[in-house]
Structures are given as structure tokens and as C-alpha cells.
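Two proteins were folded this term; both appear here.
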Amino acid sequence: FTKIREMFAGKILVPVVVVASLVVMVISLGAGSDVRKLAVVEKMAYVSIDVRSADSELAAEYFASAMNAYQENQYAVAVEELKLSVENADSSWDGWAQAHMYLGVSLMMNNQPDQAIEYLTVVRNSSSLPLIEKGSWLLAQANLQAGNRDQAIEYLADLIINGVVYADKAAEQLHEIEK
């Protein structure tokens, strides 16, 4: 491993080699362990993000109703309203990524991580760097909650390299998966 590191010293491939090695090591260790218990599934505070973009009044109405239910811990109601919100808007709506994020979290709170993954992927593919990072963290948690160990490891490894807010938490969680 030292020779490989010296060969790539100062090159851009070093993070890729390190992460690839880390992923292989983690996959080979504890392959049979249940990672579901490591998922961090918690309610997020609701914070509105205002951005100039196309308007969708109907989507905004469903979103407002959904967030009232979300704040009251009525996640099943929030899921239904958020689904209507995203169905009545397109990606140019300023609440698009935020609606998908809260929909994913609501599904996770309802112990439906497999469904959450679809909506959280939209968040990760947004154009907002903070939402991309939050989406990666939530995708890692949803995959852990669903028992998708390898996919969770991929998101955590990406956060370790590219994350700002979640890099340390991702490293800690990856360490826990190694145990």
C-alpha cells in the first residue's frame, strides 16, 4: 500500500485510490452484519428556502399543508401531501428539491426507506451544494435503514472526500460499519 501511495503522491488519484481501498476493506469486513441499526433517522427542522424560479401555486399549497402535518409528526399525511406537491410542479419550482427532501425524510420516519431513496436521489442531483451534501447524507441513512450496506458505504465515502458539513459524521459512521 505504501508503494501505491508513493506512486500517486501529489496526484489527483490519491483520494480515489484511498476511497476505493477503504470501500473494499469495509465491504470485506463484517459483510454479514446488520447495518440497519446504524442509520440515523431523525426529524429535520423545517426551514423554508426561497429562490427565484418558476412558480407553482398548487404545488406550494400542497407543500404548505404537508409541512404543517410534518411539524405535527403526522408523517403519513405529510407523505401524501408532499407527493401531490412534487406531482404538481417541475424542477424549475423553487420548492422542488426541498419538497423531495422532506418527502424522503417523512418516508424514513414512516420506516419506508426504500421509497425514500427515490425522492432523496432528486435532492442529491439538485444544483444547490448544501442540498447535494444533505441529500448524500440522507441517502446514506436511507440505505442503512433499508439494509443496503454497500450503497450506504458509497455515499459515506463520497461525503468523506467531498463533504463539508457531513465529512466527519460520515467518517465516524463508516468506522462504525467496519466494526
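Next, the second protein.
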Amino acid sequence: HGDMIIVRVDPHLVITDIQGDSREILGVEAEELCGDSSIWAEFVHAEDLRRLVKIIRSGEGAPVEISEELRLVNRKTLEVRCFLIKAVPLYTENGVFEGWEAFGLDITDKKQTEDELISQSRRIEALYEVSRSLQVDVDPAQVALKGLRALISATSSNCGYACFYDRESRKIEIVAAQGL
């Protein structure tokens, strides 16, 4: 299946078994993934790997269940995909920890849609702020400043400026600046 992968690892995070299309998802054959605990650095985004290691170490002797979103990098195409990872600790009949079994589900499309919705929401907030300021202020410079602040917020920018352009004189007048 191209959008899901199931992995079993030992207590040292060495992959012992893998199900799913690792070649499509990670750009690596399943056989290449097994037997090497350092293989994770090759396809888990560095920031996510550090976060994951921190979670694993926080178990204080008792392995914890893991539910995280990770970015996985395809070794051949370098495409980054987002996966929801769920890992549960495995124990023998005698209660001895023997590793984790984890599944990863590709949620890249969901993440992209969420990001687009957040961006659209910020733009709508900016438009609303400008339209609201028109009801209170009639001074074009004040409206431009409020609109500029709303746009800076909507685009997560650090600074910006707004200008008026006089077509007759062909002059530009800066009427609002923020963060410059």
C-alpha cells in the first residue's frame, strides 16, 4: 500500500520487519532498512528525529506509546511527506520489553489542506480588519496602516509599507510603515 507502512523494531531501534511499499515511500528497499539502527537519520527529518528520540528517552525505563507526526524524506526523490506515526511497545509473555510495532499513515494531503486553510483564514481576517477600519476611520493613511498591519499578520511577515501613487504627478507617497 503506497500510503501506509508498518514497522517492527527491537529495543535498540533496529528494524526487524517492515510491511508496505518502502521503496515508494522512502526510496529504499525493505531489506536495506533492516539491521541498522542508524538508518533512521537517512529518512526521518532531523528536527523530527530529535523530537522522537527525546520522547523515547522520556520513558524513564518504561517504553511509552508514541503518537507523532513526522516528516519522512524519500532517499531517491528527496520528496518530503508527512506521516502520522503510532507506535506501541511490545512485551514478551514474561513482561520483557522486546521493541515497538509502529504504523505510519501518509497525511501529507491533509497537512497541505490544513496549511492552505490557515493561510486563507489569515487573509480573510486581514480583509475583515480593513473593512472594519473603513467604518471607523475615513483617513486613508489610518486605513492603510490598519490594512498593512493586518497583511503583515496574515502573511507572517516582519515588516512592510503601504504607498499611495498619484497618477497625475506620478509620485509615490509612503503613508504607512510597520517594522522597518
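The radius of gyration is 25 Å. The beta strands are 4-9, 15-20, 66-73, 80-91, 97-106, 160-166, 171-178. These notes refer to the second protein only.
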